[in-house]
Amino acid sequence: MTKVNVYVTLRESVVDPQGIATQEALQTLGFNEVESVRIGRLIQLELSGTDSEVEARVTEMCDKLLVNKVIEDYSFEIGEVAGK
Amino acid sequence: MRFAVLSFPGSSCDVDMYHALLDIVGVGAEIVSHLDADLNNFDAVVIPTGASYGDYLRPGALAQSSKSIDGLKAFADSGKPILGVGNGFQILVEAGILPGAFLRNKGLKFRSGNAKLAVQNSTSTFTSIYEEGQQITLPFAHEYGNYYVDADTASQLQEQNRIVFTYEDGNLDGSVEKIAGVLNEQGNVLGMMPLPERAVEEIIGGTDGLPLFRSILKNWSEKNVNHA
Asked: In this structure, what DSSP letter does residue B31 have?
């Protein structure tokens, strides 16, 4: 069994109002060194297949459903599920 | 003329749309489940608003897993009219039938109320009874009403006169080019965030949505009714 972490973030060209609000809140709390906050989402998948199969299938899943490429970018990491 | 109101799990305003079409506009209408949607017997399809599939992942996204989307794409290719309002617009965008994507409202809050709109294109199948530039008021209710397209697509939409409605009261949710409603390239698919089916009777606050449905009916009648 393979575990995949898919990281979905808003594209650089897209304004992230949640990130901006969070950055302002951090600065209010004294974290003045924070220059940018971007908020994305983590999708965790567990699936079977060889690494190359998994890579091809997850890419297809991202392109078809998990990611809207008009506004989002993605990357993913493939790892073993511990104990399996 | 017969309308299908295509209903997904979580489409909560299918009955409002059905009522507007059948009882007020006076056309044939049927609420069709996405599971057994055979759209071939209909002259137009409307996708109502609500929160299909719980708005999970992204609003409208999970509807792509429904078999009805293939039928919807074929219906769009056939040139018959498709109208998606609110979540129905989000479904059309996520299915790739209309361009763009939806972001959370600029103010990060769900907002509802009455939107002041301008009719930018009064030549479409959906708007030919309105006057060019006419100001109308339609209700809206959304958290993901911030329509996004990149700059190239936005100028293409303008050049092709595909921006049908714009927000004229501050564009508070942040849509690119104040877009409230947009057409596909062929001109037979309209997506809009304001809700015309909630403005068809004076008793509920206004009738500015009526000309939209009547335009669809008029344009269909001119093509299909034999005036012998």
From this structure: E
Token digits of residue A2: 């393979």
A68 closest CB neighbour out of B94, B108, B174: B94
| Terminal CA-CA length for chain A | 7
Percent residues over pLDDT 70 in chain A: 96
Exposed e or buried b for every residue in B177-212, given b needs 16+ CB within 10 A? Answer: bbbbbbbbeebbbbbbbbbbbbbbeeeeebebbbbb
Eight-state DSSP code of residue B202: G
- Taking an 8 Å cut-off on Cβ atoms, the answer to whether A13 and B150 are in contact is yes
Question: A68 and B61: CB-CB below 8 Å?
Answer: yes
ipTM: 0.87
Interface of B with A (CB under 8 A): 57-58, 61-62, 64-65, 94, 99-101, 103-104, 106-108, 148-150, 174
Whether domain B2-224 has CATH 3.40.50.880: the reply is yes
Distance from C-alpha of A83 to C-alpha of A73, rounded to nearest angstrom: 31
Q: What is the tens place of the pLDDT at every residue in B194-226?
A: 999 999 999 988 999 999 999 999 999 999 887
Asked if B198 and B16 count as a contact pair (C-beta separation under 8 A), the reply is: yes
Q: What type of residue sits at position A46?
A: E
Which pLDDT does position B183 carry in this prediction? 98
Distance of CA A15 to the CA centre of its chain: 17
pTM: 0.94
For chain B, the domains span 2-224
Tell me the CATH class for A2-80. Answer: alpha beta
* CB-CB under 8 Å, A17 with B104: yes
Bridge partners (DSSP) of residue A6 are A43, A76
CB–CB contact B57 A13 (8 Å): no
What was the pLDDT predicted at B52? 97
Q: How far apart are CA A13 and CA B202, in angstroms?
A: 43
